[in-house]
Amino acid sequence: MATVREASYELLRNRGMTTMFGNPGSTELPFLADFPGDFNYVLGLQEAVVVGMADGFAQASGRPTVVNLHTAPGVGNAMGAIFNAQANKAPLVLTAGNQVRAMITLQANLTNRDAIRMPHPLVKWAYEPARAEDVPLALAHACATASLPPQGPVFLSVPMDDWDVEADESAARFAIERSVAGRAAADLQVVEKLGARLANAERPVMVAGPDVDASGAWDVAVALAERQRLPVWASPAPGGGRIGFPEGHPLFQGILPPAIGPVSEVLAGHDFVLVAGASVFAYYPYIPGPLLPDGTSLVVITNDPDEAARAPMGDAIVADVRLTLDLLVDNVPESDRQPPEPLPAPEPAPASNPMSPSAAVATLAEVFPTDGIVVLESPSATLALRNQMRLSKPGSYFFGAGGGLGFGLSSSVGVQLAQPDRPVVCVVGEGSAQYAITTFWTAVAYSVPVTFLVLRNSEYAILKWFAALEQVDGAPGLDLPALDCVATAASYGVESRHVTEHDDLVEALSEALGSNAPSLVQVEVAPGMALA
Ligand SMILES: Cc1ncc(C[n+]2csc(CCOP(=O)(O)OP(=O)(O)O)c2C)c(N)n1
Fold first, then answer.
1. Strands (E), 237-303
2. Which end of the chain is more exposed for a tag (fewer CB within 10 A), N or C?
3. Residue 482 has what pLDDT?
4. Which segments of the chain have a pLDDT < 70?
5. Does ligand 1 lie within 6 Å of residue 380's CB atom?
6. Gap from CA of 436 to ligand 1 centroid (Å)
């Protein structure tokens, strides 16, 4: 007879979920007993890092991913990263231990007494099974819910004495073997109407968002834009965890600004806006104005009913982005519209000392491998990186859509583990790096060859920019003198170098990219926001 633990591992194995990320405590050890040889346990040294790594892994592998958190305090540490995972639509099956059932009611030490309530509202589902025998079914439920659209984190609390209990063999077998498929295309009639609206529009435009990439719709988005000669904008950068359209394509026009009035200004002159795979829109800061220009209508295709419902304007089709675009492209004619003028090539950044953030990311572009992946968390250089690099391959860009720092460093390790054949470069501000600094330990311990490029400007540049926008004078705490990521990373065993000159940066990055170990390059950059 199998135990609940054995049945649970078989269930995960059956779903291909054999890499898990965790930071265990005494309440999780019974789950980890006799850890099966075909599973990988990736240890993170703090729970926010654990969840960030799993987030990157889940997104880059397209698979639900198990996370093993310590009871209440571990879940507490993880909350910011769970917030990010929800914004990223990362299918995480978060598990945490709890006290033995006999001591939950009397609230023994480490009891997570309100386990189900704790991770709300950041998870799609939270549960603690009523009986130990129900753990496999609850785990199957968790895996299905995390994977169904919109994907996202779920939470399962398991009292520590459940794992050795004998499983209900028949129930466990059904739980192990069942599968739940959830990608649904839109009704053909709805797509035909959308096709007619698009084809009959005079000056339509497309906005491509993160779920184009996540749903594998990259090629069909390009085919649709080419067929209909659509100018294409990327959805606003703050909420855009992934890129939905090749940014070097002649139809690509740039990134929509993340504010109400400015979006409307950019879209002026277009009578129809097709948004694919993005929320409408991830605005911040608040710059009021009309939501759309006069005479402009909008349709969004999203797999997320909440995204559809909460959009402040336009119509929505709730369906899988890829399947819907596949249908749509077959339901529009080849257009003879005049294609838009292509976006001019990026201006070379003028030389300065220290170099500008734009010059630093332009230098990265010089040596960036064609199959490379960027994980980005350098707030004041986000737009400069997008503009200078113009990433143009699917699955090449990951950014924390939630905005909680710590995603960058940690998720880059997960992305690299999921994509071992593609070089991963994590571009990170020295301030942001601190939120997940122990990631370096995991990168070394598991030989994960991420190249970390730290842009050091000795300040919270983005906050100074926000302070000016918000007309806030005299705010404390916006300078960061003397943070040395080279020394910190080196103390964890990461090969690390500080550079100031272009040629040294080229050499350091080329070396790091060629190495099969994690490496860090810290480059001194000028303070301030880099917009292009
Ligand atoms: C968890 C969390 N805490 C605080 C913030 C607020 N915040 C946003 S950007 C930023 C500064 C980031 O500094 P750095 O990485 O050096 O980048 P720079 O702004 O200089 O480009 C801070 C503190 C946040 N986004 N997330």
1. 252-255, 272-276, 297-302
2. N
3. 86
4. none
5. yes
6. 12
